[in-house]
Specification:
about 400 residues, alpha/beta, Aminopeptidase, Alpha-Beta Plaits, 2 domains, eight-stranded mixed sheet, four-stranded antiparallel sheet, 16 strands, about 35% helix
């Protein structure tokens, strides 16, 4: 292990109480997507207290990009998301949410705190002449939800042009199914394309005692549902990654009236553009089953996040950095799952990667993301600060990724 790496571990440990305080503040005062006004102000004050004043605000509502630079050299982006979820907290923590029905149940409080911790160390390193290039600290709102235009926070950062000069972008996400001190990484597609669908099956309503006088959309929907649930097993190559789930069915208001319409809503998940297109095409074909039965349909697709594409060389840099700093660290190489992550918008345009940082506690039942009892093991926080800081050092100071020698 290099002396610099040992130093970073010690420095991260030294500021760990501050990082924990930041994280607990964010957890105590969560804000929903596009409403992160006070969260943004708190981050701005923290950055300015570190001596960072090259700061752009108001991106995607309350987003921040703070820049630390020594002039010429690579430009690296470090990203943390800011928003919370509409969930009633049930953790019993002393710093539990004070905002009724809103909770940091996906670890964004930890993400922001770790990025602030890395910022504090990186500012010192730039001042001491240890880094050459530029770091952009990206605090992004609205990862969890979209606005009236169907957009989450990341597309607005790309549209603004503020991060389009990045040579690489890095993000981390806490991971409750791994213990603190463990890491999960993956090259290539790592989280899913998200497409939500709404299918209206339209018939002719009537009296339940005279079904022959109607065109029953509930009856038609029974054939459609069979088609939907058979789509993955019979239309998609088993070696490809794709799935479909129905989450909502609505039709009818009383027992003796056949309704005019049945509404089916669900989600499509995939890892490649080819499977994404195929799922939508097959969904359209299944919807047409209602036509020979006397019905009509309307199918609407809402396109969400693209698949998270982890750059192989940046992922290798995560692995080599982690192994160098923490030789005994368990590193698991496998995809992160079929959830969505709007960092995928950024990795589609800019070489980038996300790593999952273990935050579980041994002998403690796993608390899943997006659950009311979700809580991290705060021992993960200084580890995240160290990894973000060291990865940045290696990317700026002649890493293999930029064609130099690994430091």
């Amino acid at each position: 292990m290099h002396n610099e790496s040992i130093s970073t571990i010690k420095r991260s440990s030294k500021i760990a109480p501050l990082v924990i305080d930041w994280r607990r503040h964010f957890h105590r005062y969560p804000e929903l997507s596009f409403k992160e006004e006070k969260t943004s102000k708190y981050i701005l004050d923290a950055l300015e207290s570190m001596g960072i004043y090259d700061i752009q605000t108001g991106i995607a509502g309350h987003g921040i990009v703070a820049t630390i630079s020594s002039g010429n050299g690579p430009i690296i982006g470090l990203r943390a998301d800011m928003d919370a979820l509409p969930i009633m907290e049930n953790t019993g923590a002393s710093f539990a949410s004070k905002h009724n029905g809103i909770m940091h149940a996906c670890g964004h409080d930890a993400h922001m705190a770790m990025l602030l911790g890395a910022a504090k160390l990186l500012v010192e390193d730039f001042k001491n002449g240890k880094l050459k290039g530029t770091v952009k600290l990206i605090f992004q709102p609205a990862e969890e939800d979209s606005d009236e235009h169907g957009l989450t926070g990341a597309p607005y950062f790309l549209k603004s042009g503020i991060i389009n000069d990045l040579d690489a972008a890095i993000a981390l996400h806490v991971c409750p199914w791994r213990y603190a001190g463990e890491l999960q990484v993956n090259k290539g597609p790592s989280m899913a394309n998200i497409d939500n669908f709404s299918l209206a099956i339209k018939g002719v309503g009537g009296h339940g005692g005279y079904p022959h006088q109607s065109y029953d959309p509930i009856w038609m929907s029974s054939f459609v549902l069979q088609g939907l649930y058979g789509l993955i097993s019979r239309k998609i190559n088993p070696l490809d990654v794709g799935t479909l789930s129905v989450g909502e069915i609505k039709g009818g208001t009383t027992s003796n009236v056949i309704p005019e319409t049945v509404q089916i809503k669900g989600t499509l998940r995939s890892y490649t553009d080819q499977i994404r297109s195929q799922l939508i095409k097959e969904l359209e074909a299944i919807a047409k089953l209602v036509e020979p039965l006397g019905g009509q349909y309307q199918l609407d697709i809402e396109h969400g996040e693209p698949a998270l594409q982890n750059h192989p060389e940046i992922t290798d840099l995560f692995i080599s950095t982690a192994k160098s700093i923490y030789p005994s660290m368990e590193i698991y190489e496998q995809p992160f799952g079929m959830g969505g992550e709007d960092f995928g918008h950024i990795t589609k345009e800019i070489p980038g990667a996300m790593f999952f940082l273990g935050c579980g506690k041994e002998n403690d039942e796993t608390r899943h993301l997006h659950n009311s009892d979700f809580m991290i093991n705060e021992e993960a926080l200084p580890i995240g600060v160290t990894l973000l800081t060291e990865c940045t050092h290696r990317m700026l100071n002649g890493s293999d990724y930029f064609g130099g020698e690994q430091s």
